[in-house]
Write a structure and sequence with these properties.
Blueprint lengths: L9 H77 L4 H25 L2 H5 L2 H16 L3 E4 L9 H22 L4 E8 L2 E8 L15 H12 L3 E6 L5 E8 L3
Parallel strand pairs: 1-2
Antiparallel strand pairs: 2-3, 3-5, 4-5
Length: 252
């Protein structure tokens, strides 16, 4: 058996050992990178499945609220109206009951719409986001700047729904917490990616502090975006308003 050590000087042996160590380190790093990539791919796949299951549940609840409970409330309202017309003595109480039913019907409609807006399936992403922004600014009685033509680009349904959820969460937070005097909602395309930008000049918050419970929804949409290869970034400071950027890849 050959003694391989005799073919190497001490110096050359040291160089060989160092080279082997570097090679082994490179292989180990390569394996680590592949494991990391595989784990990230698996994590995204699981996140997408969970989100799909959540949206499926939302769709079912939305339909049940609209089709079942909504129809029952409409029937009750009709019965109350009929009784009120036939019984003048109970007119005031029945009028009040009918008003409560109408208010409940409106709340059921809003809940069903927030779970799964019909506009998103029929009118498309652009019209749906425009409706969200218009509704918010109308409620707050403030101006709203919109430039959302880029939302007419064709996105896969999963991406379109994710962008809608980002807009929904951001605008809901503005309505609840920001107290702005104006809101801007714009979209544009750059480098084969769609960017949705939602900006307000309201209270803002400390971006270096862990977000409060009313900002936890943004963590959820950040995860949604990550699952489709997108990103969420936030620029904010106390008293300086908030700007939210959501980037998603376009279809090839």
């Amino acid at each position: 058996m050959l003694e391989l050590r005799a073919f190497f000087s001490p110096a050359s042996e040291q160089h060989a050992l160092q080279a082997a160590a570097r090679g082994g380190g490179s292989m180990q790093a390569g394996f680590g990178t592949r494991r990391g990539n595989a784990a990230e791919t698996w994590r995204r796949k699981v996140a997408r499945r969970l989100i799909a299951a959540e949206e499926k549940l939302c769709l079912r609840l939305s339909r049940e609220l609209h089709d079942d409970l909504g129809q029952m409330l409409a029937s009750v309202a009709l019965e109350l109206h009929t009784i009120r017309m036939e019984s003048q003595d109970m007119d005031q109480r029945l009028t009040r009951a009918a008003m409560l039913v109408d208010q409940l019907s409106a709340k059921v409609h809003d809940a069903a719409w927030s779970l799964r807006p019909a506009d998103l399936d029929h009118a498309g992403l652009r019209a749906s986001v425009e409706d969200l922004a218009t509704m918010l600014c109308s409620q707050l009685d403030i101006p709203c700047d919109m430039d959302l033509a880029a939302l007419s680009y064709i996105l896969i349904p999963e991406s379109a729904l994710t962008v809608y959820r980002v807009a929904q969460e951001a605008l809901t937070n503005i309505g609840k917490h920001a107290r702005p005097s104006r809101v801007s909602v714009t979209a544009h395309v750059h480098d084969h990616r769609l960017r949705l930008t939602i900006e307000d000049d309201g209270l803002g918050f400390d971006g270096h502090v862990a977000p409060g419970s009313h900002h936890l929804g943004l963590a959820g949409v950040r995860e949604r975006l990550a699952s489709i290869g997108g990103e969420l970034s936030i620029e904010t400071a106390k008293g300086k308003g908030t700007t939210i950027y959501a980037d998603v890849p376009l279809m090839d």
